[in-house]
# Entry
Amino acid sequence: MKTAFATSLLVAILTTGTSAFAQTVGPQGESATPSATVTVPDAKAAELKGKKAALVWHEQSDFVNAVTAGATDEFKKFGMEVVATTSANFDAAKQRSDIETVMAQKPDAILALPLDPATSAAAFQAAKEQGTKLVFLSNLPQNYKHGSDYAAIVTDDLFQMGSQAADALASAMGDKGTVGFIFHDADYYVTNQRDQAFKKTIETNHPNIKIVAEAGISDPARAEEIANAMLLQNPDLGGIYVTWAGPAEGVLSALRANGNTTTKLVTLDLSEPIALDMAKGGNVAAIVADEAYELGRAMAAAGARAIVGEGTPPFVVAPAVTVTKANIAEAWQRSLHRDAPQSVLDAAK
# Structure
């Protein structure tokens, strides 16, 4: 799902100097605005009563459910109604059809993750012409301009996710030793930025840790095979970073099959099997997750602000949370706004 926005965003991060390599930046290098600062002025809240919103999502998942909950709760505060929620199942044509269907409800605001820049630019045109306020999650339709075409982009603090993963792994390793780096070998800006932030943070902030093995992965089903090869060549690895939780499950299987109880594992995004190993004191040292509920809340607040004539900075980011055995219950709530799986909570006691 790489776009011109995504490409420029990644380039902006990777080409900054070492001293400035410390934050996610926007498509034209805009500074990130913390999501917590995006709120509706009390004096304008009454104007929102009876207004309508629609949520036009790209898929259905725990992440999307949490974003939806955050947005819905924020809209409810102002007496706004969510009149439609759709899922395109990663089909840009279906998303365009969903937008057309939603527009019949005449929403005052639409929250969406545009799947295809060109297709979505045309698909949202009718909404723009109708005066509907648009807030986008992570992606941006082609040639859309802040203020006139959309209220804000809201996304994860991608740099912080990768950076916090690096710091968590370093902490688990006593800030010294060797690391394996399993990155996403595909042109996808979310994982690319997070992976590069991990690598850069290790190289910049943890000089006594060396990345001695690197492997790209595009098919999560190959994770165990890739990890086995890495461990065969580097049996004394102190830690392994894995690009997200799906392939991390395969890496964990490889560690167990090798009888390896010492190599620490860090990954991104919540997963019950990974969290359960961490809760039991296994190889997993930490998981870094986004605050999906907060993403939804901030998107809704940006949309509501636009309805009442209040501007929002163009690029808004929600914080990342480092999940460890010590804070599983609290951190799961912060990320997804629901309880962690019971198996994980029981194991963490």
Q: What stands out?
A: The chain has 14 helices and 13 strands. The radius of gyration is 21 Å. Residues 189-205 form the longest helix (17 residues).
